[in-house]
Amino acid sequence: MLNLHKMLFFNTLIMSSLITISSYSWLGMWMGLEINLLSIIPLMKGNNNIFPAESALKYFLTQTLASIILLFSIILTMNFMDYFLLSNTSILIFNSAIFMKMGAAPFHFWFPEIMEGLSWMNSLLMLTWQKLAPMILLMYSFNPMTFTAFIIITSAIVSSIMSLNQISLRKIMAYSSINHISWMISSMIFSKILWMMYFCIYSIISINIILIFNNLDILYLNQLYNSFYQNKLSKLLFSLNFLSLSGLPPFLGFLPKWLTVNSMIMNNLYFLALMIILFSLIMMFTYLRITFNALTINFTELVLWNLKIKKLHFNVILFNLISIFFLTLYPTIFYLY
């Protein structure tokens, strides 16, 4: 049974993000972000568990600091708009606050620690919906290319390197989100439609992965070896989702990365494309490390597959089938793009 207070705060969370996106003034956007912060804190509360409360406190302090910096940059822009130097400074401060709110490197240190103390459903909110409003604000603002390229490369490097020695699946998903933030920012430079496509595809894949984690109650890497023994179909679908998340063709996750790299090359950003592809390959190693046990299915296990599929798995199966055969639509979408 859903708690009434959680339904109330969840609706407020949705409305606050919509207020932020649709506001015509920077102060209105700032107010929407503050309502969003006050709405998600009660949703982080767990039952008889201290870790969600600790994560909520860390999240509140970090987001409050980012909001103070954001408000300072807005006031600076309003008061000193005539001065070119101060205007550029305020834009840099504004973008830094937005990057801190979304968890992009080098402002990412709070994000994996907060994810570690949350449930999978709250983690899903942090990975998807909580990224939407800061991304839209970043799209509205002027982005200096040098600073943006620094954030993109730093996010790609930090996420891929830091994920190599992790055993917590929630931290791995956090670093995966930071890696995909670098791709989303890159796509945002060239096309809003491309960014929207990337964000939607990433959200759908993340929902499928986290629903499997939540259904099987898996938190750490060593739990994967025993969790799928009685359900090999879930094992296969789990692997396919991670391969799609890594951007491996012919899965659905390959499409936005392909279009983003193509846009970079067309705009002569060869070094940026090289760096983001290189460190995405390192991130792919982390994904393969997770799915290695699921990919090694012998004949005995194949015979003993459990065919009692829960209702949740039908949605995952449908999405994976669409992802596998999506390669046939690539030329058409690429032509339209």
From TrEMBL:
Origin superkingdom: Eukaryota
- Report the subcellular localization: Mitochondrion inner membrane
Write down the EC number: 7.1.1.2
The residue ranges of the NADH:quinone oxidoreductase/Mrp antiporter transmembrane domain are: 23-279
Q: Which GO terms describe its biological process?
A: mitochondrial electron transport, NADH to ubiquinone
The answer to whether keyword Lipid biosynthesis applies is: no
How does the protein's chain sit in the membrane according to the entry?
Answer: Multi-pass membrane protein
Per the record, what are the reactions this protein catalyses?
a ubiquinone + NADH + 5 H(+)(in) = a ubiquinol + NAD(+) + 4 H(+)(out)
Q: Which InterPro entries match?
A: Complex_I_Subunit_2 (IPR050175), NADH_UbQ_OxRdtase_chain2 (IPR003917), ND/Mrp_TM (IPR001750)
User: Where's it mainly located?
Assistant: mitochondrion
Provide this UniProt record's keywords sorted from A to Z. Answer: Electron transport, Membrane, Mitochondrion, Mitochondrion inner membrane, NAD, Respiratory chain, Translocase, Transmembrane, Transmembrane helix, Transport, Ubiquinone
GO terms for cellular component: mitochondrial inner membrane
* Chain ranges passing through the membrane: 7-27, 59-80, 92-111, 131-164, 193-216, 236-256, 268-292, 312-336
Q: Output the Gene Ontology terms for molecular function.
A: NADH dehydrogenase (ubiquinone) activity
Family of the protein in this entry: Belongs to the complex I subunit 2 family.
Q: What is the role of the protein in this entry?
A: Core subunit of the mitochondrial membrane respiratory chain NADH dehydrogenase (Complex I) that is believed to belong to the minimal assembly required for catalysis. Complex I functions in the transfer of electrons from NADH to the respiratory chain. The immediate electron acceptor for the enzyme is believed to be ubiquinone.
What is the name attached to this protein's record?
NADH-ubiquinone oxidoreductase chain 2
User: What gene does this protein come from?
Assistant: nad2
